[in-house]
Fold:
Amino acid sequence: MSTITSNKNIPQHVKRLAQNRETPFLAINKNKVQRKFRQFTEAMPDARVFYAVKTNSNKRIVNILHDAGSGFEISSKDELDLLLNCGVPGNKIISSNPLKNIPFIRAAHGAGVKYFAFDSETEIAKLAEHAPGSNIYIRLTVSNEGSQWPLSRKFGVETEIAADLLINAARHNLIPCGITFHVGSQCIDANSWGNAIKKSRLVWEMVKAQGIELKMLNIGGGFPVEYVDSIPSVNQIATAVNKSLKTEFPNGIDIFTEPGRTFVGEAGTLVSTVIAKAKRNEENWLYLDVGVFNGLMESIGGIEYSMYPEKTGPLQKWVVAGPSCDSMDVISNEIRLPEPEVGDKVYIASAGAYTTAYASRFNGFPIPKTYLY
Ligand SMILES: Cc1ncc(COP(=O)(O)O)c(C=O)c1O
Structure:
């Protein structure tokens, strides 16, 4: 359970925006996005960075990261079109979703995208036909234990199958170039990457023994943001990652990484309004105009947000829920807040990642608009 005692963490700029804008809306601090990108690239100077566009596909965020020198990781034709409209060239785009539809593969190949992930024979066949000559990298299953938003079961293969698939890809008109993994999103165990790098090395050696020299390791995303509890810093994780890379691959290899959450999460504040209050079975319920379906989807998977009502005062326990007529729409089962009134603003911190990107208009409630400041 989180305890919120003051709203001093809410930037003045956001409070000013809240004075004359309809809620819910997402305020993104441009400088913070730039700073997060810079800190990351300084901590991992040898890695090529590809922002995972799914995290927040706002066009202005894409432009900021493009100007800063980032590449991009995508899964769909819409994401590809967005990047092409922003002037991102195909050679700065990769696709690490091992399950791609054929129209997307064709469009990406046509636009000059040369790197695709895979984890099955089916994907080899599709890529060989619709993106011949591409560099393809295998998605390896790795432990997601340190992650608060695991991504393991749906993707990836174990070491021996990974090696077999890479070897088989070389028999088609494709270049087996490397390995990718994802330690799970919001990963708070800095050792997770090291364990995954060690496992990748096994596959690397297996295919080498069959005459195939891989070139690239994609260490995925997973770098966490601060919601309620403290987290390891990017520098701490980078130190662990760089050390593992040096141990496992002392001669140096191409390193790719595709962070999402860490670049935009803490840059975003979701501004909402209290629409109702109720007492049910001794519980205090607070209802906001933003909920699970129009922005805070990750709260049902266990992500806890810090919330700051505009007024301070004595703390009470609250269950906080969204506006829809669905009882899944509960954002926090227990949070201590000073009591807000209907019409008061509630600021939700670290809400720039996987919020508007997931939002729907379910039950007629609007998707928060995004403002950059
Ligand atoms: C293939 C892939 N790469 C990168 C990311 C970004 O991960 P994160 O936001 O945890 O950095 C994701 C997230 O789902 C992903 O699926």
User: Anything to note?
Assistant: The longest strand covers residues 268-280. The mean pLDDT is 96.
